[in-house]
Amino acid sequence: MIKILYFARLREALGLVSEELDLPQGTNVAKLMALLAARGDTWQQEFAGSHPLRAAVNQTLAPNSTVINTGDEVAFFPPVTGG
Amino acid sequence: MTVRVQSEDFDAGAEISRMRLSRADTGAVAAFIGQVRDLNDGARVSTLTLEHYPGMTEKALEDIVEQAKTRWDIFDILLVHRIGTLQPTDQIVLVVVSGAHRGEAFAACQFIMDFLKTDAPFWKKEQTPSGTRWVEAKVSDDVARERWQKK
Fold this sequence. Notes:
The structure holds 2 protein chains of 2 kinds. By secondary structure, chain A is of the alpha+beta class. Chain A has helices at residues 8-14, 29-37, 41-48, and strands at 2-6, 18-21, 54-57, 60-61, 73-77. Chain A has a 5-stranded mixed beta sheet. The longest helix of chain A is centred in the middle third of the chain and has 9 residues, at 29-37. The mean pLDDT of chain A is 96. Chain B is an alpha+beta fold. Helix content of chain B is 35%, strand content 35%. Chain B has helices at residues 12-22, 56-71, 102-119, 139-146, and strands at residues 2-6, 28-35, 39-40, 43-44, 47-52, 76-82, 84-86, 91-99, 122-128, 131-134. Chain B has a 4-stranded mixed beta sheet with strand order 1-6-8-2, sandwiched between helices. The mean pLDDT of chain B is 96. Chain A binds chain B through residues 5, 7-9, 52, 56, 59-61, 75, 77-83, and chain B through 34, 50-53, 55-56, 59-60, 81, 92-93, 113, 116-125, 134-137.
């Protein structure tokens, strides 16, 4: 089981703050994004569309190749705009 | 080294004085303040709401401050970033860096802001006359961060 968090514009588009999911062993960020996109509609647009997205695994920015393990906290969000 | 994420305002003058007086061998204090503008991308902005990722935000800011400390010979760093709903002319972010000489303090201060812009999980949402909108990230921010990699 992993926890997924969504932030900012993405959270509003999906209408979801967080969820828990069981993933196959060895799933990486890119594979998880493909799984989420396969839900269709808004999910397809957000995870396989033209909107740029960033991912974090255990609260650290993570490239698409990062492997996700049981108990990890994964977050997806648009490019940041603080400061 | 201090990092704070808070909804309350900060007193930049008091923070600068505190750092300046904390060590008598301090010769330079560089500071940056970011504030809310009333105009962005051609629209009037009445309020700005800052969302963040609690937990990761603090980690990301501490990591940036740590990198600056490793990279330059400086004495102390304070980084304060506000969250929640703000209005034009409200302060958003404060960076204060002290050291023996100005060069290192200036450079570290700019480095911290450039990395914060691309690596710290904050998102701005603006209220304009035509409704609310999320602020888009700028390519120029990525370019500003890239500069520091080439050294």
